[in-house]
Amino acid sequence: MPLRELSHEALNRGLTSVREMLNDLSSLARLEAGQEPLRVSPFDAAEALSALASTVRPLALMRGLRLETAGPVRLEVEGDPVKVRRIAQNLLLNALRYTDEGCVGMSWDTAPDDPSRWCLTVHDSGPGFEVPAAQAVPDSSQDEALSSAGEGIGLSIVRQLCDMLGADIELDSGAGRGSTFRVSFPVRYTRPTSDPAQPR
Q: How far apart are CA 40 and CA 16, in angstroms?
């Protein structure tokens, strides 16, 4: 490829990265300012996550990675489907970005120890890093460790969205064994006027 075309391609990639970063910063600012309302409705989490996987799979193939999914064919829950998708998408893209070979997986199901919650899990075969097992991501003391796990802005957005949805998120990682993010959502929500996101 001629040098001019290579330079043009590199410039486009750089501009795309800057645009994505600015979009993430704007999204994070809106979340922190409380400018993104929560819209709770019934939806099929399995259908939404399967559709997301179909969208992301070509990117995984371009990177020489497998994208594996597992879960029931239907998973009827309540929540904000747009925000749930954003959480899953950020975690998937983060995993793909930092995995050089092997696979990235996403699964969903009712929580095995609590039928009032359902779980989304994203794992990868990347390098991983040393943190205490199954730490809760929202703890601010883990910011330095989480910055090693991937894009800080993306994970900050995930934390903000989890707070809005009453979801818990945990990270399990270790050097040489990849990283696993587990997000636990309420299956049902109450909708009091003062706090439409409060789970039952």
A: 32
